[in-house]
Design brief:
six-stranded mixed beta sheet, alpha+beta, 441 residues, 11 helices, globular
Length: 441
């Protein structure tokens, strides 16, 4: 078992990076909002003040395809056992076997066990009996995880989901309904093992439930990946944090996106929070920093005018059940000037993350074009991706792109599609396409 220290309360900060200067008649204001949480302890675990409880449900694909090859089922058992070993004492947990139905593997009483030496040993013993057989209906796994996590008074609720195949035994609408029902109730990291699963399904699950998605092409890598996921989950100290955006009368919100460590469009997830204010969900936080791109459209104004374009606050639930309370805030401003140099200068942070968002888009468009047989379209889009990755210093994405295209000139985005591409390489690029590199300040 990992040795986790007693958690402390994280402290939040909000910093705003923008060029607030607009030309006469200018309306679009863009800002990068950096949110940092410090002092909670990356391995401290789950609590506000050390008193709140946390729960984790591990959902393991046990469909028939997990036996082909047999290393997948064996790797899944070993990985889940490694994750159980990483649980901090006092964490509530359960293990679910997922096929065309969802079944409780441990503790099996319709609730959650509390981690200690005995329950971890019992859980690992139960895992040895896992076998493959049946279909895949991921929505049922998620709904069972939700019921289990709802069976105890928990502050932080988290899921880990592993699948090796497509969601063939329920409709896309049924999975969407399950995700809608679970959104905001728990966060979930999703992993695809092997190469027979659907990237958009796995990334869609993680996106809807504010978790991470990744590929583990070789089952031998599952144990290390599950251990890292669980250690990351153990570091969460505050749950259900929201980015609250207040705007004055006449200001329109163009979009709100997370842009680091990955691109996630939050615009459509707004919930109203009073007059001219809305909350955008960010999930759970430990010791970490994330960047958000806020774009608003202000009314036209004359040179010399200035205004508050938006107020960005971090909001957390009140543990006592009262109104949510602000953790920190920052201001987005607009100032109209006739100084051309000031009004046309693009803030470096805004420019960087605009490029990172485009990078994620063109990778997806290029891979879609490649799959549909549009070689010219694929070459153009993936060439642009190579150019953006090189310009922004995103070496990890550049390396993944080089397995799909031959790079002739990275600076101009001149590439040739490779004649043969390993399926795992293409899926890795698609799965990790939204991962960004932080701007150098």
């Amino acid at each position: 078992m990992a040795n986790f220290s007693k958690p402390t309360v994280p402290q939040f900060s909000v910093d705003v990076y923008q060029n607030e200067f607009l030309p006469e008649g200018g309306r679009d204001v863009n800002a990068i909002v950096t949110v940092a949480s410090t002092g909670g302890g990356t391995a401290g675990g789950f609590a506000s003040g050390g008193t709140a409880a946390a729960g984790v449900v591990i959902m393991v694909d046990c469909s028939g395809s997990m036996d082909y090859p047999a290393t997948k089922m064996r790797g899944a058992r070993e990985a889940t056992a490694a994750a159980v070993d990483t649980l901090r004492d006092g964490t509530h947990f359960a293990v679910v076997a997922g096929t065309h139905v969802a079944k409780e593997v441990y503790p099996g009483n319709g609730g959650l066990a509390v981690a200690d030496a005995r329950t971890r040993a019992e859980a690992k013993e139960a895992l040895r009996r896992l076998s493959a057989g049946g279909g895949t209906a991921i929505g049922t796994w998620l709904r069972l995880a939700d019921r289990l996590l709802s069976s105890a008074e928990l502050t932080i609720r988290h899921g880990i989901l592993l699948t090796d195949g497509r969601n063939e035994h329920e409709s896309p609408e049924e999975l969407r309904a399950a995700l809608d029902a679970c959104a905001g109730r728990f966060t979930c990291d999703a992993r695809g093992v092997g190469t027979d699963w659907e990237v958009k399904e796995v990334t869609g699950i993680a996106s809807a439930l504010l978790g991470t998605a990744d590929i583990v092409a070789d089952p031998a890598g599952l144990a290390a990946d599950f251990t890292a996921m669980m250690e990351h989950a153990m570091g969460k100290g505050v749950a259900d944090v929201a980015l609250r955006l207040w705007t004055p009368v006449g200001v329109e919100i163009v979009f709100v996106k997370q842009v680091a460590p990955s691109v996630e469009d939050l615009t459509g997830r707004r919930t109203e929070a009073g007059p001219r204010a809305g909350d955008y969900p960010t999930g759970s936080w430990g010791d970490e920093s994330r960047d958000y791109h806020v774009s608003v459209r202000v009314p036209q104004a004359a040179v010399g005018r200035e205004m508050l374009a938006a107020r960005v606050s971090l909001i957390a639930p009140d543990p006592a059940g009262g109104d949510p309370h602000p953790l920190s805030q920052g201001l987005v401003r607009a100032v109209w000037t006739d100084d051309l140099a000031m009004s046309t200068s693009i803030n470096p942070q805004v420019a960087h993350y605009t490029g990172q968002a485009e990078l994620a888009d063109v990778i997806q468009q290029g891979l879609d074009a490649r799959k549909s047989g549009d070689r010219d379209g694929a070459t153009a889009k993936l060439g642009r991706a190579v150019q953006l990755a090189a310009a922004s210093g995103n070496a990890d994405t550049a390396k993944l792109l080089s397995k799909v295209v031959d790079v002739v000139d990275a600076a101009t985005g001149t590439v040739r599609l490779k004649a043969k591409v390993a399926e795992a390489d293409e899926m890795t690029l698609e799965t990790r396409s939204t991962k960004t590199v932080r701007v150098k300040r």
